[in-house]
Write a structure and sequence with these properties.
Order of helices and strands: EHEHHEEEHHEHEHHEH
CATH superfamily: P-loop containing nucleotide triphosphate hydrolases
Number of helices: 9
Structural class: alpha/beta
Bound molecules: adenosine-5'-triphosphate, ligand L45E5XJ5
Largest sheet: 5 strands, parallel
CATH architecture: 3-Layer(aba) Sandwich
Distance between the termini: 26 Å
Length: about 240
């Protein structure tokens, strides 16, 4: 008797949530385990912001930002074990994590022409991953609501600002004093407020997203729970 082993159905997964809730770590971890592609959409907004800053464009000058939206070529590599991001062929994975880009990215990403440009890139990457059979985990702020409203599974991660600030300052190393935690918390809250109050495609939970509070879970536990939800969709 011959048995046929069929490949799992390619699924498209949207993971959204505020800053520091664990979107990148969870998405990379689960995509690597399940052999899926991974897209960090925040890195794309950071990359276009980096390009604006290096050209002396003021992030607050909405007209100038909008006029330049189509100019840089942004390429994202979707291997969860080695994600990459280039702008006009330059690897920008390190400079996009700096304070200057972090401080400017919410202003740039609020411009509708920027969102239209980056959303187009995201949709074509997701469509290609679905066609290839791998499926993809796409993480960001508006993936379930706007970029991929027909995603097979939508997850919205949360955690209190205190927990997220402690995680972020742990990342930076050094002493965890109260002043530093308070400054990190204020930065997170400022970015979340800007991202959720903009008019164009704000940070929001899709009505059909599964909400997962990660505050009392280890990263491993979050990856396991999300992995189980994806496996269920794959076999549905
Ligand atoms: N469940 C968890 N328990 C403890 N630490 C976690 C957990 N999830 C993520 N972390 C840690 O929290 C920090 C932030 O995680 P991560 O970068 O994945 O968040 P994010 O939601 O992608 O943030 P951002 O939107 O700012 O890019 C990292 O240092 C990560 O290792
Ligand atoms: N779908 C998305 C993803 C990100 N942004 C903007 O980019 C900033 C950086 O995101 P990180 O995940 O790298 O922290 C974020 O603060 C948003 O301004 C977005 O608008 N939409």
């Amino acid at each position: 008797m011959r048995t046929t082993v069929s490949a799992p159905t390619p699924v498209v997964v949207a993971i959204d949530g505020p800053s520091g809730t664990g979107k990148s770590s969870t998405s990379k971890g689960v995509a690597a385990r399940l052999g899926m592609a991974y897209l960090d959409t925040g890195a794309q907004y950071r990359a276009i912001t980096w390009w604006m800053l290096t050209r002396g464009i003021d992030p607050a000058d909405t007209a100038e930002v909008a006029a330049a939206a189509e100019k840089p070529e942004i390429v994202s590599g979707t291997d969860p074990l080695a994600p990459t991001i280039t702008v006009d062929g330059t690897d920008v994975s390190t400079p996009i994590r700096g304070a200057e880009v972090t401080g400017a990215v919410s202003a740039v990403s609020a411009v509708p022409e920027i969102r239209a440009r980056i959303t187009g890139l995201q949709r074509s990457i997701a469509a290609e991953a679905a066609r290839s059979g791998a499926g993809i985990v796409v993480e960001g702020r508006d993936i379930g609501t706007t970029v991929l409203p027909d995603a097979d599974l939508k997850i919205f991660l949360t955690a209190s600002p205190e927990v997220r600030a402690a995680r972020r300052s742990g990342e930076l190393g050094g002493p965890q004093d109260a002043a530093r935690l308070a400054a990190t918390r204020a930065d997170l809250v400022r970015r979340d407020t800007a991202d959720s109050s903009r008019t164009a495609s704000p940070l929001a939970r899709a009505a059909d997203a599964v909400e997962l509070d990660t505050a009392d879970l280890t990263l491993e536990q979050v990856i396991e729970r999300v992995g189980a939800m994806i496996e269920e969709r794959r076999s549905a």
